């Protein structure tokens, strides 16, 4: 199962609305993220884990903490409002340089959005320079916060091709996805 921030039916649209009008502030954003994560834990993740499935979260609690604390939210307050989520067996942080992230963002969506480039933080009017600076700040913040969420934290260089990054991810996850041995003797 694949989950991640902004993917619950409950909060997907309100999160998009916040990005269109971020004047409502970081606390509104954090509460939307908290509702999003809680909804996914309640509606999908708990049942999947109970049934023995693996759950892959594409951006999760650490990302919320990094994004919102950069925008001025108190990390202790964020921890208090974020739902209790199952502790991950493994946390893989895909670390791409800001320039690689920018090239990928432009190839996928065109010019980075106001929020994606961190311009709501007042770090610059030029979307490209602001994007690079914001991504650098976000990366440093993410690494600092990453170790506080338990589980095994591993940084994976993501500047390479998608195929090579996938190979590294598969190797990092292989020990978690080993199928139980089948008894063929009897």
In round numbers, the mean pLDDT is 86
The helix count comes to: 7
Class from secondary-structure proportions? mainly alpha
Order of helices and strands, N to C?
EHHEHHEHHEH
Rough outline? globular
Which superfamily, in CATH terms, is the homologous superfamily of the largest domain? P-loop containing nucleotide triphosphate hydrolases
Strand order, sheet with most strands: 1-2
- Helix-residue proportion: 40-55%
Q: Per CATH, what is the topology of the largest domain?
A: Rossmann fold
CATH class of the largest domain: Alpha Beta
Question: How many structural domains can be distinguished in the coordinates?
Answer: 2
Q: State the separation between the terminal residues, measured CA to CA.
A: 33 Å
Largest sheet features: 2 strands, parallel
Low-confidence stretches: none
Share of β-strand residues: 5-15%
Cα-based radius of gyration, to the nearest Å: 18 Å
CATH architecture of the largest domain: 3-Layer(aba) Sandwich
Find the count of extended strands (DSSP E, 2+ residues).
4
């Amino acid at each position: 199962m694949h989950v991640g921030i902004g993917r619950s039916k409950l909060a997907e649209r309100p999160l998009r609305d916040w990005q269109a009008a971020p004047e409502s502030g970081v606390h509104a954003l954090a509460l939307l993220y908290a509702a999003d994560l809680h909804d996914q834990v309640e509606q999908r993740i708990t049942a999947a884990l109970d049934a023995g499935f693996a759950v892959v979260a594409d951006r999760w609690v650490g990302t919320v903490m990094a994004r919102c604390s950069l925008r001025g939210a108190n990390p202790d307050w964020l921890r208090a409002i974020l739902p209790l989520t199952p502790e991950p067996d493994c946390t893989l942080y895909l670390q791409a340089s800001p320039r690689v992230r920018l090239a990928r963002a432009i190839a996928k969506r065109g010019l980075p959005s106001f929020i994606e480039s961190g311009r709501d933080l007042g770090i610059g009017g030029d979307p490209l320079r602001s994007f690079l600076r914001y991504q650098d700040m976000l990366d440093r913040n993410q690494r600092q916060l990453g170790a506080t969420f338990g589980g095994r934290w591993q940084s994976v260089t993501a500047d390479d091709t998608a195929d090579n990054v996938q190979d590294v991810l598969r190797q990092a996850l292989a020990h978690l996805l080993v199928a139980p041995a089948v008894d063929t003797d009897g």
